[in-house]
Amino acid sequence: MRQAVKLSLGTLGGWIPQQLLIRISGQDLVFPFYHAVSDVPMPHVEKVYPVRSLKRFKGDLEFLLKHYEPVGLEALKSPETLGRRAKPAMFLSFDDGLSEIHELVAPVLDRKGVPAAFFVNTDFIDNRDMFYRYKSSLILERLEKINYSPAVTELFQSRYHLAGSGKKSVRDFVLEISYRNRKELDEIAKLVQLDFATFLKVRKPYMSLQQLKNLANKGFYIGAHSKDHPLFTHLTREDMFMQYRVSMEFVQKEFGTGYGIFSFPFSDDGVPARFFEEIKGEGMPPLDASFGTAGLKKDPVPFHHHRIPMEAGRAPARRLLRGEYLYYLAKGLVRKNKIVRV
Ligand SMILES: [Zn+2]
User: Fold this and answer.
1) 227, 258, 307, 336: most buried by Cβ count inside 10 Å?
2) CA-based max dimension of the chain
3) Ligand 1 centre from 265 Cα, in Å?
4) Which CATH number fits domain 2-130+206-333: 3.20.20.370, 3.90.550.10, 3.40.50.11290, 3.30.450.20?
5) CA-to-CA distance for 241 and 239, rounded, in angstroms?
């Protein structure tokens, strides 16, 4: 809903120059983020999330570099240096650690000298396992391939007591499977004769530890994105800490980063203020910055930054950014452009 409003605003405000929006909003540091960029089908992603083509990604980058100066972590740590720049700043990042980052994205960024952070789920490095939503995507793509064959969908209906065996019932059921019930996806895979282990071995959807080390050596930032991609607000306090600490420690040990960055999987919605205080506390892995996905928005936590999802509605960066600024300005009128944390 919120995303649809932003996209409409992006279209309506097509005549407003980007510089003007930046100036009147005062938002001169933005955090665009992506997941997947590919020119070949990504069956594990595209049924649940949009995939950016390389051409469109390059177009986005051209727009972003025209209006913003790409900055690294140093600029976030000393924001007073930002005002000295000729252009507003952007900090670019990519979530989920997909192999296309190493193949397509990093070479483009490297050629242009654009710094970026890549956030990884530590359980999936080296293709040891896969994000449960990507498993859902693979199941849906298999169901499409067999034209939602009644022989199979009737099995779904009887096993899971679905209201019907039609395409919609089965599809909705697969899409609604949550982190808590993710083991069920392995059972469903058997129903459609899908083998995730083979997919991981053959397709290698994720980067290897070595590939990530290569990127770290080139100067890209490697950050943690939890162990296996749960929605934090659904976790117990203990599990939130475990997901955070294990992934942060792994990344800092393996890549010898000397810095700490973390992006919340899905969203940080509902994560209490206390959690942010505690992860900065004694005995925790070093943390320089954490990242959410709420778009252009202020946060009361000084080291926590909200990023702009750049894949919504397959719209180009120009329209997405414009929508974000206009939404931000509209919310500002009713004083709602700042997150409230309890
Ligand atoms: Zn993610």
Assistant:
1) 307
2) 65
3) 5
4) 3.20.20.370
5) 5
